[in-house]
Amino acid sequence: MLFTRDFSAVSEVLTPDFTDHFAPPWDPPGRDGVAHRFAQAAHALTTRRVEVLTSVCEADILAQAILLHFEHTGEFMGLPPTGRTFTIGGSNTFRFRAGRIAEHWGVFDVAKIPDLLAPAPGREGGWASMWDTDAPPGSGGRP
Description:
Blueprint: H1 10-13, E1 14-20, H2 30-44, E2 45-58, E3 61-72, E4 85-97, E5 100-108, H3 113-117
Parallel strand pairs: 1-5
Antiparallel strand pairs: 2-3, 3-4, 4-5
């Protein structure tokens, strides 16, 4: 799905009563929300590679640590396309039922994307705006 941008597969791989614990509250619930989020991301980010660092499977649960490699090809978080490539880390945990995904939990480092796409390192937006870059070493850089 990430590479082909064909999100019709969502209904094939997710159960009809799928629950996404990662979904923001304003997204449609269930499978529709997943298709919506994937389509929004695909509008702005071209997936170049999904790198699975580790997978652990026990009973009906699969947990993965992953790296997502993107190219910024459309407006994202208010930033016009830059053509830059970047990588963010994350984790997915899936619960399966009858060979399909019934539940998903996820954590991804999306807060640092504005910093990765900024023209130069700075204090505007993303993580950089949270830290005092002029703080003395050892102070933790907090304002």
